[in-house]
Amino acid sequence: MSRGKAAGRVSEADPWSPETDAGRRAILEQLERLLADTRFRNSKRCPVLLRHLVENALNGRAELRERTLGIDVFGRSADYDTSLDPIVRATAGDIRKRIAQYYHEPGHDQEIRIDLPSGSYIPEFRLPAAGELPARGWTNRLRQWWKPLAIAAASGAAIALAAVLLRPWLIPSPLERFWTPVVDSGATTLICVGPADKLRVEALRESRAADAPPSLQDLLSIHDLALQDASTLARVAIVVTSRGKNYRIQSDDATTLSDLRAMPTVLIGAFNNAWTLRSTRQLRFTFEMSKETGRYWIEDHQNPKRLDWETDMGLPYTKLTEDYAIVARFFNPNTERMTVVAAGIGQYGTMAAGEFLSNEKYMRDMAARAPANWGRKNFEAVIGTKVIELSTGPPRILATWFW
Fold first, then answer.
1. Residues 6 or more apart from 110 whose CB is under 8 A from it?
2. 90 to each of 46, 56, 70, how far by Cα in Å?
């Protein structure tokens, strides 16, 4: 696009397409100036999307579609419904509002203007009213200093510039990358948990007449939670609410397929939660049991001969030294919703799973062995934990699977 009119200037209303490296650098400097403003610094989504759009435009790529942005920027699944999850449109609208507020303030009229036109994901750039690039910043002027001083100054400048350009505080943490596709895919997250004693609840149901409502005493058994499951539930609730979202708690008996199709779901517990067993049946790692032998184990369907992830639930509690669990996050084709699993063979595995899914340290450990784009992939892991005097040790990653 031409920069000039007859007088060689560009009016403030004319979009400008940089044709030189200096012009592109000037736009990136202005982008960092914008993102350093409190309007963007206090937002999690706006800086990430705006940076992606500006860099995409400067690299000469075609206009991006809403679905592509949802997948690449916000970690949505490839078949997510943009009409039900308008995160890209909503964030773009928020960016436009923040940009307008920024340039409305005095003191920004001599800066390059970055705009995001309504209905488009291609940003537009405009030079100040003078039609010239702003004076280059102090980091570029370092090159004009004497060589002895430049050597000493370059190290400090490089650190400062890296801090500005990389802006590590805007890079989502592994914990955020895990949970964002879940909590952002619905206004409310369903937390589904099973009773402390599933066999007792089933026996109670069989002993009552089909049309007889449960008594208040019966409800205590039906809705009784194991302490370890309650601990995991509390950890998940904190994660969800810390991201400004609501949650709903339901027992597995009270949860229907319609509920699972209506919102993202966190399934807590394994053998006491029928929905966990159903939902993980399609995955590589699954929960298995033998009523004949009383064995409970996690099976690897790519290596079915592996039998070391097993917990003997018939042991005296003082003899239990190890428990195992599955943690997972995946797009469930049966519900068309994101599903998270935090489930142990026993209650101690479930407690370790809750700690794993809410602790930044363990998420970093997982991310270190994950593919680069794991935030947009389905994920499943087997974890183990030591059990000592009814307390769990730290969760250990034993196996992972990304797809």
1. 128, 129, 130, 134
2. 10, 19, 11
> Which of 215, 334, 330 lies closest to 283 in space, CA to CA?
330
Tokens of 44: 């999690």
Query: Taking residues 204-224, what's their average pLDDT?
Result: 61
Is 242 in contact with 228 (CB distance < 8 Å)? no
Q: Tens digit of pLDDT for each residue in 190-199? A: 999 988 666 6
- 210 pLDDT exceeds 70? no
The predicted model scores a pTM of: 0.57
Q: How many CA atoms lie within 13 A of 311 on its CB side?
A: 26
Q: How far apart are the first and last CA of the chain?
A: 43
CB neighbour list of residue 310: distance below 8 Å, 6 or more residues apart: 295, 296, 297, 298, 324, 345
Chain centroid to CA 354: 16
Write the burial class of residue 342 (CB in 10 Å: 0-12 exposed, 13-18 middle, 19+ buried): buried
| Residue pair 124/117 in contact by the 8 Å Cβ criterion | yes
Which residue in 257, 277, 270, 280 sits closest to 226, CA to CA? 270
The pLDDT, as a whole number, for residue 90 is: 94
Determine the average pLDDT of the residues in 114-139: 74
Alpha helices in 250-386 (DSSP H): 257-262, 274-280, 347-356, 360-368
Per-residue confidence band for 145, with pLDDT thresholds at 50, 70 and 90: very low
- pLDDT digit string, tens, across residues 347-363: 999 999 999 999 999 99
Q: What is the DSSP string of 355-399?
A: HHTT-HHHHHHHHHTS-TTGGGS-EEEEEEEEEETTEE---EEEE
pLDDT at 6: 36
Asked whether the beta carbons of 28 and 13 are under 8 A apart, the reply is no
